[in-house]
Amino acid sequence: MSGPSPQRRRLELAQEMAPAPDDGAQRVRLRFLPEGAEVRVPSGTPVFDAASWNGIAIDSTCGGHGTCKKCRVRIVSGDVPVGPLDPRAFTTDELREGWRLACRASARGDLVVEVPPLQTRPKAALAGVGRHVILRPAVQKRHLVLEEPSMEDQRSDLQRVLDELDDLEPHASIEMLRSLGSVLRKSGFDVTAVVADQELIDLEPGDTAARRFAIAFDLGTTTVVATLLDLESGQPVAVRSMLNRQQPYGADVITRISATMMDADALDALGARVHETLAELVSEVCLEGGVEPREVYEITVCGNVTMMHLALGIDPEPLSMAPFVVSTHSFGEVLARDFGIEVHPRAPAFVFPSLGAYVGGDIVAGMLATGLTRDRRLRLFIDVGTNSEIALGSHERVVATAAPAGPAFEAAQIRCGMRASEGAIEGVKISASDGVALDVIGDVEPVGICGSGLVDAVAELVHCGLLDHSGRFIPDSDAAESHPVLAERLTKIDKERVFVLDWRGGSDPESSVFLSQRDVRELQFAKASIATGWGILLTELGVGVEEISQVLLAGSFGAYLTPLSAIRIGLVPAIALPRIVSAGNVAGEGAKIAALSVRERAEAHSILREVEYVELSGRPDFNDMFVDQLAFPG
User: Fold this and answer.
1) Buried-exposed string 342-368: b where 16+ CB fall within 10 A, e elsewhere
2) pTM score of the predicted model
3) Does an H or E element contain 96, and which?
4) Over the stretch 184-235, which tens digit does the pLDDT of each residue have?
5) Half-sphere exposure of 284 (CA within 13 A, CB side)
6) Radius of gyration, alpha carbons of the chain
7) Fewer CB near the last or first residue (10 Å), C or N of the chain?
8) CB 191: neighbour CB atoms within 10 A?
9) Phi, psi of 255 (to 5 degrees)
10) DSSP state for residue 473 in the 8-state scheme
């Protein structure tokens, strides 16, 4: 009698290794080989998404939907059960060796993942959250071998070039014309024409058609991210980020606007600071990618309205007071050099349009990347930060607003708060029987707590009952009776009640890493502002929480926020955990999409026309809703 067929054996193996349900309440670390890049993502994140969010290219043509079966990776270390689709893509031996489809491989523990090099240069680049983008950049190159002028052919130099660009209709600036003739003659009329946004920006000697690059910038208040893109393949070449050098002028946009109002020189100084930041990132990505800055023919930039004003030297004062008027929603002709960037001297800059004074181009870029205005499902988009932008809707109608959450999520006004860097507590688990378990960035001794750790800590304290639903620590006597293992951590510093997260080797609360009653209040105000924002948007659309199909948590903070903790504190609606998605840096993804496709740029401008902006200031129902949202759910 013959044994089971190879297909049946593979299906049996899949059943044996079926994944257990994941609640998304932890963070895991992934290391990608051969580059060695290391990232941290929420548990349950598909390996494909974890890679694409961080600029790591995995082959695929279906957008991560499990149909092309090209996103092959090998799990070198860690456990990823065989999924239902894996047996259709791999042999039994390959499955046992750890081969999996990245789009269906959920990371529920620390992993080391081997990514095979791309075998082809696809003409479709994956970007955003599972979105397929047709590669059609604004930058085009054409290698031209032209007939030299003669007495019989006295066409102008420019016309000679334009006649060969029969699929393009560019125009040329005076600056371009000054060098056009000399380049043609020095190169023997063998040149490559560079066209960006229907403008002839350069003629290069010889055939350079295979080398064309762009840089996509996410210009954030705190962090700036630059991605160098190969426009031939649509793939990222290098990614770098750094803190915005405007930090000395304040951690939030209101403080920086105030600086320009109090000091006449501050606007120029703030502009210079952000130009230095962008210029350094350009140097870093070009050096890493082996690209000459002159080969970067375009940049795309997304950011909040204040950042755009400061970077371009526009007075931001009207943004800070009613009626909160922007200088423009859509920018006209802007060059890369207007941002202080030394790439190709005639490189244009595509700047994302804004919806309002506090719903800027970064949110438009995020909506573009997530396809919010195209989806039939009702989805809630939240970019969690100092000024949290919120959008709700589907392809039928989308409304958006901004909620002033304050700096709690940045841990700026938290007693032991710090940025998400080495030594920061980023995850907290509290058990009445086992005590406190901490997840610390860098696996070192705790120094402080960052925003995601703050949310986790408060959520855990509410869940175990040490914080009541009003946000107060319970009395010491109650804690000693109900939580004897944790009670000693509940103490006082200068008459303020605190909960010690880590004693740092001593017994003095003041030397510990702790969470204070005031810290809890800061988080309550922040989460209530956001919850009020999405609550008002639900009212505007006339829908209920139960109708929301998905919640997208965007931004660098949203990427590390534990969905379960977000629900426990009331930051997001209480829906099924798998429907709460940490979408990562979708603003940066939107900037990349704009660099890769002129069609998507048109969609960005359509968003400006289609999305309705809801102003929260002055609404009669805001205060009552805000007070209602201060309490923790329960």
Assistant:
1) bbbebbbbbbbbbbbbbbbbbbbbbbb
2) 0.74
3) helix 92-96
4) 999 999 999 999 988 999 999 999 999 999 999 999 887 888 999 999 999 9
5) 15
6) 27
7) N
8) 25
9) -65, -40
10) B
